[in-house]
Amino acid sequence: MWVNKLSIFLVAITFLTIVFCIPASGREITVDDNGSADYILIQEAVNSSSSGDTIIVYPGFYNESLDILIDNISVLSESEHPEDTTVRAFNISANNTTVNGLRISEQLRLRGHKSDFWYDNIANCTVKNNILESGIVAGSGRCYNSSIEKNVILNSGIHVYDIDEPSDFLISDNLVVNGDITASHVYSNCILLNNSLLNGGIGVSECYGCNILNNYISNGTLSGYGIVFTESSNEVENNTIVNCTYGIFLGWLTGNNEFYNNTLTSNGYGIYAGESGGNVFSNNTISKNNIGISFEGHPSDNLITGNRIELNRQYGIYVKLIPYGVHEEPYNGTLQIYNNIFNNDICFFNDTGNYTDNYYAVIPVNNGVRANFIELNTTKTTDPNILGRHCLGGNFWAKPDGTGFSQNCNDWNGDGIGDSVYTVNAYDIDYLPLVSISEQDQPVFPVADFSSNATDGYVPFSVLFTDDSQNSTSGVWDFDNDGVIDSTDKTAVYVYPVSGAYTVNLTVNNANGTSSKLYPITASDRPQYTLTEAQITANKSNQTSPAIYGDNIVFFDDLGGHYNIYVYNLSTSRESQITFNDTYYNTATGPAIYGDRVVWQEYRSTIPGVWDKADIHMYNLSTSTEIQITDSGQAFCPDIYGDRIVWTDIRNGKADIYIYDLSTSKETRITTNESYQGDPSIYGDKVVWQDSRNGDGHNPTDIYMYDLSTSREIQITDDDSDQYSPDIYGDRIVWADWRNRGWDIYMYNISTSRETRITIDKGSQEYPAIYGDKIAWVDSRNNNPDIYIYDLSTHVETRITSNNSAQLNPAIYGDRIVWTDCRNEYKQNDHLYVTNKDIYMCTVSEAEPSLKAPVADFSANTTSGNSPLKVLFADRSTGEPVYWLWDFGDGIYSRHALNATHTFTKPGKYDVSLTVTNENSSNTKTIPEYITVSAENHI
User: Fold this and answer.
1) Could you tell me the CA-to-CA distances from 555 to 114, 837, 938 in Å, in that order?
2) Is the peptide bond before 460 cis (omega within 30 degrees of 0)?
3) Among 73, 215, 537, 623, which has the minimal tally of Cβ within 10 Å of its Cβ?
4) Mapped to the 3 state alphabet, what secondary structure does 376-423 carry?
5) Is the distance from CB of 451 to CB of 465 less than 8 angstroms?
6) Are 758 and 790 in contact (CB under 8 A)?
7) Band of the pLDDT at 1, cuts 50, 70, 90?
């Protein structure tokens, strides 16, 4: 890409030299300080010259400060050896000036003649084959279309600035020792080509269009920089940079640079990108640096592809992405990294979130909100990758010891893409990692994988982990990434007692190698809730099967000897009877309410004494009117949402789901399957029910859903065990599930198609109800039915009832839960105690923690002695801790122990700490150098 551009430029320079520097006629004027030539002083020869003249300077020392003010003259050494022809100082202020073969002691200046307010422009000057002891400056007068070539610059450098009009400027084949090449405010085609800088660097500031090609840079002196950019957009190709603090440094507002085929080796940072975006790094070799490439600050939309990033001591790529300032938003952009060869002990390290400078506000990576995203692969295509294999995808992940992922990953289809994804860290995944093993040489490697029932929750946070790895013979879990093996079981439960961000590490093995997977877990301090319980009914009859909407609670009440439906209004504290029929109600199927409408299933008799006709009825609380919804005589289990009522109907000889629209007075049959469909629930356009079409008879049942807006039926569960009692709110469906050989509560999110296990206790959890983020159910873990809730927003499970009687039939609206409660008895006939069912309600609200934070404290029976020293540590903590973690300072920890005994085997001074936790928070006490162990005395 550079050949054509460079050829055009060199042709242009040659043309300009022919046109401007070789006149049709011109004199040759000689200068010799011994008096044998035309002039003794060079300045005299210059002053007497005319356009087109050439001044030949014989060897000697000329203690002059030359000013070139006449256009189109050349000053050349006679010997063409700058070592023997020295001039003290040189100022070029004229067009078409050539200086060749001189040694110049003081700084050479290319600057136009000063007018009243500014310097004049000059153009087409050539400084070539000189020794410049104090360097060269081109600027202020704006020097255009000029070249600085094949010079030796000592203890200074080449400095070009203020070229702001279209022109060419060539800095080529110079040797700079103990100096730099800098360009500032250059908006032209400035080419830096084939220069060697020893103990120097290249600095570019506010430059657009500079081409930096084929330079060699070592031991950078610009604060350790090899090449440093500020507010610049340039192209950098085929440079070699070694032994610098920063090989390439991209600073403030530097963007849209292109870096190709550069070699950066043995530097502190190969490339450092701060506030820099839109850059392309391609086909570079970045090796043996401390860090290969570092992205810090807020770089955005950078592309790293086709590079070899190898043998860097600390990291191949280091990332710490943060916004610029506390009050400023970060750049939106993607850091895309693909088709690179990594071969480092740590190839990629994402350290975002650990930045400690107060000037910056840390942001997470990949959080979906104004974040810098990281992509470790591109879309899979059939283009050859960097290894010459068949497909382009992600990166090649190697380690110098041969244990890298790509060195040990299978590729059975031979496309050059690994058969499993590579989890680089807890946040970043290469979904198409490159591999190099041919199909015939592939051993079977293990592939680590696992799942968890939750990824964030409140301490003490209990998480169920399941090993889903392939081709493994054994595996070890490190749940808190402290380097200590916590379990070797395929399925394990771990409790996080202390709030914080943890990384789970599963490492699996077989005879051919190991594989690991990392995943983040977040444990937070548990919020506290205030539970306000109220008894809604108190008369000596049975009230059961409540439902709630807003301030109204509806329920069955057998006051008077048989059941009727009542409503209690919380705002007025008034109870009203809705039905007065001498009929029969199945209390297992309670009333349902939405707004001011109550629906229920009611049996009526066509034959005296026989309740043989079941239909759905509705009562309007606003108008105090009752209507009959069905007349099939076979309708059961109603639910209501808005204008729609759903129920189970067996009019066709089997149970189907029907719906009635109050606004259109239209009834619709939803299911036509030959099996049983029952217990429907409705929210918006979606109806859910339990369905036995995949079982035998009524068992087992699955959960199904019907979308009224699309007329589409969807199977929600397909497990072989029973799922029943569904409820729905928004896009969430809950039900009771037997798949773990005990009833658990499960949830399905329609939007994400994700199923979640809500309860993991071995007791029975059934009859769920959902509203918003809260799920309520009946729970038997305490040997009697209690009401529990789970908050999806906080992942907190809370026990609502704690008495020893039975609590049943929960319903929920907002922060209110109602249920049937059997705690009350009354005395009948002076001696017989009768259980009385009442309606209770609990209002749940978040409150300040009632349990204070624990305070860690401990003591030891001895604090010094000879090795091996056995010490008994005693806990003195307050605040009712439920978890203890001892750190003895020698790499050994003790968990789940109130008091701990530990033996120190090596001499030294040891810091001891104890962390204690209760359900509110945790606290740590550390005593520095608490234990002193001396070497055992031998007499």
Assistant:
1) 100, 11, 85
2) yes
3) 623
4) CCCCCECCCCCCCCCCECCCEEECCCCCCCCCCCCCCCCCCECCCCEE
5) yes
6) yes
7) very low
